[in-house]
UniProtKB/TrEMBL annotation:
Catalyzes the conversion of 2 pyruvate molecules into acetolactate in the first common step of the biosynthetic pathway of the branched-amino acids such as leucine, isoleucine, and valine. This is Acetolactate synthase small subunit. It holds the Pfam family ACT_AHAS_ss. One of its GO terms (cellular component) is cytosol. Dimer of large and small chains. NCBIfam families: acolac_sm (TIGR00119), PRK11895.1 (NF008864). It catalyses: 2 pyruvate + H(+) = (2S)-2-acetolactate + CO2. GO terms for biological process: isoleucine biosynthetic process; L-valine biosynthetic process. Belongs to the acetolactate synthase small subunit family. CDD domains: ACT_AHAS. Keywords: Amino-acid biosynthesis, Branched-chain amino acid biosynthesis, Transferase.
Amino acid sequence: MKNDKYTLTMLVENDPGVTARITGLFASRGYNIETICGAPTANPKMSRITITTHPRPETLEQCIKQIKRVVNVIKLRDMTGEKAVKREMALICVKAQPKNQDEIRSLIHAFNGTTMDEGRRHFIFEVCGDEDTIDVLLEKLSPFGIKKLARSGVLALYREA
C-alpha cells in the first residue's frame, strides 16, 4: 500500500464555511491535513485552497469525489507530481551568537532568504522554496537553535502548456 504525500488544490466560492466543510471531509475519515493554505484569487469572489495530506490512494479517491460534490467547489485538481509548481514560505527566527552570525548570514544567502529583523542575538528571515528545500535549511539551522518558525503551507499551480 502506497502512502505518499498528496497535494490537492481547489478553486472555491469565497463564502464562509467552505474551508470547514472541506476539512470536515478529511477529519471524518481520520486523515490529518499536513498543510492547508487558502486565500482569495485575482477574482475576489473565488479562493484557492491547497491541502497536503497522506491518505491511502483508494481513500483519497473517495475524498476527491466527495469534495467535488461540495456546492461551493468550482474546480479540484490533484497537484501531486511534477506537473505543478509548488512553493512554501517560511519565517524563521534563529539564535545568532556573535561567533555564528557570519555563518548564519551565509546560509540565509545560499537559500535566497531575506533578513527581516536582526538583533544582537537573533535573526528573523524569510525563505521561499519547495518543502524539501525549507526542510534542508531548517536542518542546517538546527545546531544554532531555531527560536520560532512559521510556515505558510504549500501553494501550487499547474504549469501552463
